[in-house]
């Protein structure tokens, strides 16, 4: 659905060139929720603006739904942008319009007849759970309600792709979870492809099937979460499932075990202890549900030679590091 190849974007700041996006390749499959994770200044927002051509990249190509946006002139680009919509960190609502009026605005701009506008606005407000707040102004809405209005407005033109620019970072944890649940529901019900940027690992953990870590304008790793979790040394895996430092006892070796998919719900540690007749001590970690799979990391202590224990776990689908 989204194919970005060799993307570069450089700014001039205080007499110096700043490479905001430095050779990024990105592939988001149709119907996927893809997260780009990174700290402030990593280049995430610039990348997102380049995807919808609000910022024109210096080089590289952006293709959405089979159309190369970077090759289009102004009028063609404006038409192609109907395939995409965007929601923002600070909602970007019109304070002089009600919730219904904000959702109706893009429909008015594109000349949708009044009766059709009213029907579509009612449908969208119902979709985001705000039917009873249609007449409320932004100042009368909570942060979560404002973001729901922003989502409804973004969906007004029936896009195939939703771009999310830190859409939950201004919200409290409970409201963040409700917005993420809504995005996941829209993804499943509408087949909506979602590309989101965030600095919050919990956002990736909650709804993303794939993710990339961005630093200094580049992706340091990218791919499906199920694949990244099985990559030795994966920064994302460490961030999703951090393990506390631990000290081995005499005659004991420490192993870090990553499990995903079927192996995540198997009684691996009890089977390990029984089969090899060794003591197995769980020091830290656990298994959780991600959007795409069940997965987890464990730090364990095993008595004796750790090699047979590591081989036993690997044979059962775990990634093991000492």
TrEMBL record:
What's a single GO BP term from this record? amino acid transport
Q: Where are the transmembrane segments?
A: none
What InterPro entries does the record point to? AAA+_ATPase, ABC_transporter-like_ATP-bd, ABC_transporter-like_CS, ACT-like_dom_sf, MetN_ABC, MetN_ABC_transporter-like, NIL_domain, P-loop_NTPase
- Report domain ABC transporter positions: 2-241
Cite the entry's keywords alphabetically: Amino-acid transport, ATP-binding, Cell membrane, Membrane, Nucleotide-binding, Translocase, Transport
Under Gene Ontology molecular function, one entry of this record is: ATP hydrolysis activity
| Keyword flag Nucleus | no
From the Swiss-Prot or TrEMBL record, give the protein name.
Methionine import ATP-binding protein MetN
This chain's source organism reads Paractinoplanes tereljensis
Query: What is the name of the gene encoding this protein?
Result: metN
